[in-house]
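Protein of interest.
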Amino acid sequence: MPWKETTPMKLRKQFFDDWMRGEDSVAELCRRFGISRKTGYKWLKRGTQQVGEEAYADRSRRPRTSPQATDAWLVDAIVAARKQRPTWGPRKLRSVLMAQNPRVEFPAVSTFAAIFKRHGLVRPKRRRTRTPPYSAPLAHAQAPNALWCIDFKGHFQVGRARCYPLTITDAYSRYLIACVALRDTKTATVRRAMERVFREFGLPQAIRSDNGEPFASTAVAGLSQLSAWWLKLGIRHERIEPGHPEQNGRHERFHLTLKQETASPPQGSIAAQQRAFDLFRAVYNDQRPHEALGMKTPARYYEPSRRTLPDPPWGRDFDYPLDIEVGQVSKLGRVQATVGSFFLTTALRGERVGIEWTRAGMWKVWFGPLYLGALKRVDTRSRRVKFEPVSEVLPMSPDSSSPMSAE
């Protein structure tokens, strides 16, 4: 015979029915059902006042009045603001509303979050295990334009073309310097876009990027035509370690916000996508508060650089000391010097490099302040030399041992 299933509501009804028979006292029934007399009398009262099983059902414990509840008009205003900025969190949205309405007493951040959830304005996310962000490499950005972060926000279809958003942010102020919708990632395309940026905002002290093209290459010292141009302009190029995007984590996190605001879904053309980028950039810099800035906007902390783009914009050649031989890289990447001819890299074609003799019977090869590698003779009976590129370039700091300087 199967066990009989029961519920608290059935037990309460049975308690009332047993009492109606008049065979047991209330105290005896309470001991039998394992409840207090106060609880027993409560359910007896409900059973005599109401009819049906609803008399024995649990009732809501919600208080009849809530003196601390947020006013309905304020809830409507918060919901409307959230719908206008669906990607802004409760802390950010509360800060903006407080600045716009200083006389209004807004509820706590937790109340904002509860209002969002109650009105279905929060999209649940799957919990993922993530590696803690590593922020130490950005610690030296102590002023605007000390370090710019540059990258491509992937690529996606826009109408009949592919869009490659080139993004540049200031590491200190989080200011979005540029967000340009490009049709490709070729060096010439990126360089034209960066010339416009340099003319408007000046030159930074350093630029951080990943190791992909056109920012870097597999050539000697990781140089590319673009990074060689930066070096001639007096801009230090910092490359993150391969496989460690967290070293540029702030910029990577920004890309998620950019996608949510401007490309979900994408626009119908490159021109329309650029207009969306421009509108987002204005809001991001001048209206959207940043938690790392004390809920201030990036525009409060950024100012253009005093270092201007030189004329000509491709930069002047490096000025090497008189005791260093100067060689020019050919179109094929070779250098003809007194010590001999050797292959260097096509990334520096047309550029001037310095060749410094050392007492160790070898020659050091420099491109301005950047050490590229060493030249060694194959044997003592010939003029054949072998170039050994530098095995590692420190990505986070400039080389301080260079005898060269830019004009």
In short: The mean pLDDT is 84. Residues 82 and 121 are 8 Å apart (CA to CA). The two ends are 99 Å apart (CA to CA). The domain at 72-118 is CATH 1.10.10 (Arc Repressor Mutant, subunit A).
